[in-house]
Amino acid sequence: MIENSRSIDRWATAILLCGLVFVLTPMAFVIVTATQSYEEFLRRNFSLIPGGHFAENLREVWTRTDLPRQTLNSIIVGAIAATGRIALAVTTSYAVVFFTGRGRGLVYALVVASIMLPLELMIITAYQVTANVALPLNALANAGGLWSALAGRPLDLQWNLLDSYAGIAIPLMAQGSCTLILVQFFRTIPPQLARAAIIDGAGPLRFLWDILLPLSKGPLTALGIYMFISAWIQYMWPLVAASSPARTMAVVGLARLQEEGERIPDFPLQMTGAILVTLPPLILIAVFQRRIVRGLTLSEK
Amino acid sequence: MTATNAPAAIGLHGLRKSYGATEVLPALEAELRGGEFTVILGPSGCGKSTLLNCIAGLERLSAGRITIAGREVQEAEPKDRGIAMVFQNYALYPHMSVAGNIGYALKVARVPRAEREARIAAAARIVDLGDYLHRRPSELSGGQRQRVAIARAVVREPQVLLYDEPLSNLDAKLRQDMRMELAGLHRRIGATSVFVTHDQVEAMTLADRIMVLNRGRIEQFATPQEIYHAPATAFVAGFIGAPAMTLLDVAGEGGWLRLSDGTVLARHRHQGAALLGIRPEQVLADPAGVPARVIYREDLGAHSVLTLQLGDGSRLQMAAGPGRPVAASSDIRIALPAGALHLFDPLTGRAFARHPVPSDAMKVQDDAIPS
Q1: DSSP letters of A136-165?
Q2: pLDDT tens by residue, A272-298
Q3: Which residues in chain B are contacts of A196 at CB distance < 8 A?
Q4: What are phi and psi of B101, to 5 degrees?
Q5: ∠A160-A142-A119 over CA atoms, to 5°?
Q6: Is the peptide bond before B243 cis (omega within 30 degrees of 0)?
Q7: Looking at CA atoms only, how far is residue A200 from chain B in angstroms?
Q8: CA-based, 20 to 30 A from A4: which of A18, A192, A238, B81?
């Protein structure tokens, strides 16, 4: 048995090493390219010989591009989107698991169905509504000429959220995967806890605040980080929703570095930017690594 | 600490509970006396937990009234009913310390901190938990956790203590210790207690009165002695006692009870069909008695339980003392003493007019030799 498991170990190690090489080779190219100057790069093309110009490149990214500002944008939008998703998921899951109201199954099904409907599919509608948040309200009031009959002219409220943090972040919140995971976690919490809290005189909000949320700290942290990163890597929606470089998110800004000029792209600069943009999520994962793993296995100990 | 309030009686008046078309409790009527320890006993699915939850206010009634200390509470919030509850799986808040768990209700009720701490300490003392106040529930044993749950109930000085199968998660030894502690606790604080269980040993040992529930109906509500010695229905007879009472289809004619094949079982002046109940420990070996064949035998050390087959094929259990071991598939003769017979209506299951309740179970056997 011992020999047997040892050979399994060896194989596992070998397979993992292959995977590591597969994943890290592109990363190596990114890092090495980021250390070369544009001239070196033109002369040698992609190579694995490091140069000595990383600091220079970094200075250039920091001073000559919008990336630092856009990274900040990403942090803000990511935080808003993650917080919003979690808040929506907590309230929805709480209602679905702990209350017996009519139609909660339907609500849950709809929320989960939204997982199958990514924002990219609804991007035109989402753009229209973000360009004027009052659009649905206008449409409703003007249905059948109702508002014209009452007020003399059609309702035409305007509220443009394009090119704002809220405009980018709020549509990103409408996503059901968080709810799916939290519902699973809440179902592992014994319902008797809720009953005990009722007997102890705690109302629904008190139970949520005093008992349910403290018990969900682990999964909530993990979900929060996961949701932050999934907002961080969004490309399509931020590209559409924010047109000015000052409001654009980092991933979009990174792609735009490529469009400048007609010469051969400045890959060393781009790769330096890529490192900068990858850093915040990487730090987050490094710091919270254990909590993420524990939270995703949904165990609270 | 003792409950400052006078013991509160609980009245259940026309209490009905149904889920959709399923009626769990059809028009229950009962009076639980103040200060008494009432055990609600029944098989799973009989509605006993639903009844407890109705009293607690965790379930809404479909119809009827509940009074606690004369006050109608069926519309009141659980916290305003003067009740506290101990749950089957403890239901402790895992992220709070023992003190936090015990004091949570007081914190919600905004009891000032100093008073809160004094009451927590007092409640912990009652259940002997003083040294564990700062531990988490996960650091405690099952028995200690249940004590925390009891302290959490006691700290509110309730008029009524509700227990929902609180001992079923504990092992046998611990269960016995906790039974003793619960009995002591009841004596000390004197609150009206309602205890739901499916375990007849808990019911027999803890209860002042047992309410036997079957399909939402009260089969019998009486002292453990009465329940055991004078079961009101065939259901109660078959549910209480280990091994349970044997029930046989008999017919009474001319002063004798006969099996369907005509075998004379015992003397009794009952006329017509009946269900005959007899406790295994009251069946006697008698060389002049009814022939029976031993088809199965369980030796439990102190006594053995024999399963006997009678002439018409029906089966009967008999508890035999230690000593002469009886081999399986041997033939013996038994007697069913007249004083130990219970007769039930085969249609309704209700007991026919019965013999007086004996004060001492052993005496029955002595008096029981047929005259």
Answers
A1: HHHHHHHGGGHHHHHHSS--------TTSH
A2: 999 999 999 999 999 988 888 877 665
A3: 85, 87, 91-93, 152
A4: -65, -50
A5: 45
A6: yes
A7: 4
A8: A18
> Is A214's CB within 8 Å of B95's CB?
yes
For residue B166, give how far its alpha carbon lies from the nearest alpha carbon of chain A (Å): 12
Quick check: A71 and A247 in contact, CB under 8 A? no
User: CATH code at B207?
Assistant: 3.40.50.300
Q: What residues of chain B lie within 8 A of the CB of A300, using their CB?
A: 94
Q: Which two tokens stand for residue A271?
A: 């790769």
For residues B95 and B128, state if they share a domain: yes
On whether the CB atoms of residues A264 and A258 are closer than 8 A, the answer is: no
Distances (CA, A) of A241 to A116, A119, A187, B66: 22, 12, 37, 61
Tokens found for residue A161: 């959220």
Confirm whether the ipTM is greater than 0.85. no
Q: What is the 3-state secondary structure (H, E, C) of A67-85?
A: HHHHHHHHHHHHHHHHHHH
Look up the CATH number of the domain holding residue A270.
1.10.3720.10
Q: Which residue of A has its CA nearest to B164?
A: A192
**Of B79, B89, B94, which has the smallest distance from its Cβ to A201's Cβ?**
B79
C-beta separation of B294 from B307 below 8 A: yes
B264 beta partners: B258
Asked whether residue B368 carries a pLDDT value surpassing 60, the answer given is no
Q: Give the closest of A192, A193, A206 to B108, CB-based.
A: A206
Whether A202 and chain B come into contact, CB under 8 Å, resolves to yes
In a domain, A90, yes or no: yes
- A193 → chain B, closest CA residue: B91
What is the amino acid identity at position B121? A
Q: State whether residue A9 sits within 8 Å of chain B by CB.
A: no
CA closest to A207 among chain B residues: B108
Amino acid at B158: P
> What are the tens digits of pLDDT across the range B157-177?
999 999 999 998 888 888 998
Percent helix, strand and coil across chain B, each to the nearest 5: 30, 35, 40
Of A196, A210, A211, the CB nearest to B87: A196
Domain coverage including residue B129: 10-229
CB atoms within 10 A of CB A207: 20
